[in-house]
Amino acid sequence: MSDRDRRLTAPELTKIINSTKNNSHVSVWTVRRVLTECGLDGRVARKKPLLSALNIQQRIRWCKSHRHWSSEDWKRVLWTDESSIELFSSSGRVYVRRRRNERLHPKCLVPTVKKGGGRVSFWGCFVGDDVGLYIAL
């Protein structure tokens, strides 16, 4: 059950098991212990941008077309990234059960989308040996 729905908690799994017709009764601690023994530890789900199938294909095509670039080619590329800090939000943590090597498994991720609100935004870049930074309040 935990492999099918990684967001089921130990109490939810216990309730499902105990509601079956075989009149079994297990405790939450038993369920947690068995999940851990099977390598399914409770973890906070990683967040990643929601990508469409088309976007994934385009990214793969781009990577394949640039795989033979030299270090000098890459030094001419402007690398950028942005990040923001939400001023008034909760942690929004989602817990999942996953094995040690499943950190980026689709069932163990929480897709993210952009949204507005009170935040501080940071934008940075580098090219070759030069860097830049911009902060927006």
Blueprint of the fold:
Layout: H1 10-18, H2 28-37, E1 41-44, E2 46-49, H3 53-66, H4 71-75, E3 79-86, E4 95-98, E5 109-112, E6 119-127, E7 130-136
How confident is the prediction overall: mean pLDDT? Answer: 86
Tell me the distance between the termini.
45 Å
Helix-strand sequence: HHEEHHEEEEE
Largest beta sheet: strand ordering? 3-6-7
Report the helical percentage: 25-40%
Low-confidence stretches: none
The largest sheet, given as strand count, sense and whether it forms a barrel, is: 3 strands, antiparallel
- Number of β-strand runs: 7
Radius of gyration: 22 Å
Shape: elongated
Summarize the structure.
By secondary structure, the chain is α+β, with helices and mostly antiparallel strands. It folds into 2 domains: 1-38, no CATH class; 39-136, no CATH class. It has 4 helices and 7 strands.
